[in-house]
C-alpha cells in the first residue's frame, strides 16, 4: 500500500501538471491539506518536503508553499512506465508515429544486447513520440520474437506493453537502465524536433519478464530541455 505522504505528493504533482495549482500561486495551507487528505500535519509536511526536493514548490516564510513553474516532464528513473501511461498521467496531448516495423535477424550488436543467436528473429520498432504536437522522443525497440509472435503497427501506435500484459499475459518485471548524453545522429535529427538543442539524452533499457528472461532492448532518445529524470530514494 502506498504511503499517505506519497499519495499527497502524487496527487499534488498531478494537479500542478493539470494547472489546477498554477505557477507562482500558493498551495492550500498545511491545515487545509490535513483536512483534504484526512491525515496528520507530519504526513502533510513529508509530502510537501518531497515536492520541494523535486522542484515543484518552494516554501516561502509568511506565504506558504509556492508552486514553481516548469514545463519539464518528470521521467522516472526507477520503475517501468510506458509512454502512454506517462502522457496520460500528465494530462498531455500525445501521439505515437511508427516510423519502422520489421521482423528480421539480429545484427551482432543486437545479439549482444539481447543475448540471442544470429538465426533468432527479432522485432525492430522505431517510433517518434509527440507531446502537445512536438516530437520529443525517438524510441528504437528490439524485441525477441520468441516471446512476441505477432506485432502490428496499430499495436505499436497504441502501447506495446499494454498488448503484452493484457493480450499475451506476459509479466514485465524489471529493467536495467543506462543513461548517457551525446550529439544527435542523423536519424534523431529527422525524428525529433530538436528546436536548437545540440544534445540528446539516451536511455537504454534492458527489460526482463518475471522469470528473469531478457526479452527487450530499447534505446530512447530524449530532447533534454523537455525532461527531468527523477528518482525517489529511501535510506
From TrEMBL:
Gene3D superfamilies per the UniProt record, alphabetical: Chorismate lyase-like (3.40.1410.10), Winged helix-like DNA-binding domain superfamily/Winged helix DNA-binding domain (1.10.10.10)
PROSITE patterns: HTH_GNTR
One of the Pfam families matching this protein, by short name: GntR
Biological processes per GO annotation: negative regulation of DNA-templated transcription
Entry keyword Transcription regulation: yes
Keywords: DNA-binding, Repressor, Transcription, Transcription regulation
Domain HTH gntR-type, residue spans: 2-70
GO molecular function: DNA binding; DNA-binding transcription factor activity
PANTHER family, per database record: HTH-TYPE TRANSCRIPTIONAL REGULATOR TRER (PTHR44846:SF12), MANNOSYL-D-GLYCERATE TRANSPORT/METABOLISM SYSTEM REPRESSOR MNGR-RELATED (PTHR44846)
NCBIfam families reported in the protein's UniProt record: trehalos_R_Bsub
Name of this protein: Trehalose operon repressor
Organism placement in taxonomy: Bacteria, Bacillati, Bacillota, Bacilli, Bacillales
Amino acid at each position: 500500500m502506498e504511503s499517505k505522504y506519497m499519495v499527497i505528493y502524487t496527487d499534488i504533482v498531478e494537479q500542478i501538471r493539470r494547472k489546477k495549482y498554477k505557477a507562482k500561486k500558493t498551495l492550500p495551507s498545511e491545515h487545509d491539506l490535513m483536512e483534504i487528505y484526512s491525515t496528520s500535519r507530519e504526513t502533510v509536511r513529508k509530502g510537501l518536503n518531497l515536492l520541494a526536493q523535486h522542484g515543484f514548490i518552494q516554501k516561502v516564510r509568511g506565504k506558504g508553499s509556492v508552486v514553481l513553474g516548469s514545463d519539464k516532464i518528470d521521467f522516472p528513473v526507477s520503475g517501468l512506465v510506458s509512454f502512454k501511461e506517462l502522457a496520460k498521467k500528465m494530462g498531455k496531448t500525445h501521439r505515437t508515429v511508427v516510423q519502422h516495423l520489421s521482423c528480421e535477424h539480429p545484427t551482432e550488436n543486437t545479439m549482444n544486447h539481447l543475448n540471442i543467436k544470429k538465426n533468432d528473429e527479432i522485432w525492430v520498432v522505431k517510433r517518434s513520440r509527440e507531446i502537445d504536437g512536438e516530437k520529443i522522443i525517438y524510441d528504437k525497440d528490439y524485441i525477441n520474437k520468441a516471446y512476441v509472435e505477432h506485432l502490428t503497427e496499430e499495436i505499436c501506435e497504441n502501447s506495446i506493453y499494454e498488448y503484452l500484459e493484457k493480450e499475451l499475459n506476459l509479466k514485465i518485471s524489471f529493467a536495467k537502465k543506462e543513461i548517457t548524453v551525446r550529439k544527435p545522429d542523423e536519424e534523431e535529427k529527422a525524428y525529433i524536433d530538436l528546436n536548437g538543442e545540440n544534445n540528446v539524452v539516451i536511455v537504454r533499457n534492458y527489460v526482463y519478464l518475471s522469470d528473469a528472461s531478457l526479452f527487450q532492448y530499447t534505446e530512447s532518445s530524449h530532447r533534454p530541455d523537455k525532461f527531468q529524470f527523477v528518482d525517489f530514494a529511501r535510506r
